[in-house]
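Box 3.1 A note on notation
Throughout this textbook, protein chains are presented in two layers. The first layer is the amino acid sequence; the second is a token string describing backbone geometry. Keep the layers aligned when reading.
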Amino acid sequence: MKEKIIRKAREMFFRYGFKDVTMDEIARGVGISKKTLYQHCPAKEALIEAAVDDLHQAVLRYIAALEERGLNPVEEFLAVRDIVRKVLQDIETAPAYQLERYYPDIADRMRARHMKIVIDWFSGNIERGKRAGLYRDDIDPELAGRFFFSGILGIHNPLLFPPERFSRWTLFDRFFHFFLVPLLTPAGKKQLQKIDRP
């Protein structure tokens, strides 16, 4: 039951906003009484934290599934782009703002977990790409991972990229492309030309 509650809360929080969604609405969405909801999740903040963690776990499951497919690093980079796009499609921008404003401690923990996931995956992808001869040897994996993470944060900044001027998904796809191309060796560029599907 708790998993069902967390999944429904995650869906509602990321669609309608962390502040706007009430415990009553979550209980109705799950089809249980408010009393039953509080037996499983005693506070809204704990439910928000669990919903955010559930999102991170979903991303980690997607990445683990990718590793089992045996993709080369360029294919994996593009597949992660597609996964992140899929995950973010159901997330509106207003909830992220509400999380920052009304639940800053949870937002900080979320950002730290997100940063670890991104840097760990990106560093591993760089190492595999260097060994495969698809990425340049002179790239520092951790530093590149941190640049990549800061870029992801940047493209979501409405002051830098006003939504009325920049399509969210075009910006997202271009960011991945602009970041990947400078990493590539000539063999990596050939691989990209074979598989890229912006």
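The first helix runs from residue 2 to 16. The domain at 51-195 is CATH 1.10.357.10 (Tetracycline Repressor; domain 2).
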